[in-house]
């Protein structure tokens, strides 16, 4: 927050990987110092750290996005978050997503409920695509992505932080979150567990279970929704 709305230094990453700011790096340094000091045997996977292949051999691994929604952060919007997760082998077992400008803290662990500022949350009970609110980007509504070229009659909305989108589904404020592009693990690791513990089903775009701390550090898209709505979305998508 020392950097937010104070014109932080910013630049573009190589290979069109998006913008980064001095705040992203400062948060990353702080989190790595605190977390790795507490758990020195854990692996480390962060959007803003150099790749460390040794994480693949670790029983536990931190999966971190220091600032998810950097463009929103640069623009002075409130919809950016910090996304922190722990993978035990290939499953997420603890998660926190925090929006500092809104003071919203979403948390979950593998054996407990999803919480927002300490209070339980749950997914929407909606089971029909018609009229559902789906958090996704505009290109996901193009006809070629849907069976028979027929785009479902849902209402598309967008939020800049992918981690927050998953938490909004967990909270029941939106019915589903959808990504048909590859999703980086650091963007979705924490939000996936929070959504699952709130009652959602979270898979890749093929309907297959998500795995984490992989060599590629990315998934083949993502569908997150209550089980009945998830099934309808998955069945309606074309298969690449």
UniProtKB/TrEMBL annotation:
A GO term (biological process) for this protein?
phosphatidylinositol phosphate biosynthetic process
Q: Kindly list the cofactors needed.
A: Mg(2+)
Q: Where does Mg(2+) bind?
A: 47, 65, 67-68, 187
Q: Which Pfam families match?
A: Inositol_P
Supply the InterPro entries for this chain.
Inositol_monophosphatase-like, Inositol_monophosphatase_CS
Q: Does the keyword Repeat apply?
A: no
Q: Kindly list the GO molecular function terms attached to this UniProt entry.
A: inositol monophosphate 1-phosphatase activity; metal ion binding
Which PROSITE patterns does this chain map to?
A: IMP_2
List the keywords (alphabetical). Answer: Magnesium, Metal-binding
Q: What family is this?
A: Belongs to the inositol monophosphatase superfamily.
UniProt-recorded name of the protein: 3'(2'),5'-bisphosphate nucleotidase CysQ
């Amino acid at each position: 927050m020392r950097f937010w709305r104070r014109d932080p230094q910013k630049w573009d990453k190589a290979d069109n990987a998006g913008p980064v700011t001095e705040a992203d790096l400062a948060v990353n340094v702080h989190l790595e110092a605190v977390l790795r000091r507490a758990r020195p045997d854990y692996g480390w996977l962060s959007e803003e750290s150099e790749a460390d292949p040794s994480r693949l051999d670790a029983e536990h691994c931190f999966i971190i996005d220091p600032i998810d929604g950097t463009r929103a952060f640069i623009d002075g919007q409130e919809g950016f978050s910090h996304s922190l997760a722990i993978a035990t082998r290939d499953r997420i077992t603890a998660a926190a997503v925090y929006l500092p400008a809104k003071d919203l803290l979403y948390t979950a662990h593998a054996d407990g409920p999803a919480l927002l500022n300490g209070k339980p949350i749950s997914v929407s009970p909606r089971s029909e695509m018609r009229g559902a609110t789906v958090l996704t980007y505009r290109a996901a509504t193009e006809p070629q992505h849907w069976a028979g070229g027929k785009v479902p009659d849902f209402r598309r909305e967008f939020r800049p932080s992918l981690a927050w989108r998953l938490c909004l589904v967990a909270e029941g404020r939106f019915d589903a979150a959808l990504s048909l592009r590859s999703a980086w693990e650091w963007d979705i690791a924490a939000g996936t567990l929070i959504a699952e513990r709130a009652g959602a089903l979270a898979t890749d775009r093929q309907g297959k279970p998500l795995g984490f701390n992989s060599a590629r550090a990315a998934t083949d898209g993502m569908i997150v929704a209550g089980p009945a709505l998830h099934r309808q979305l998955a069945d309606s998508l074309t298969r690449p």
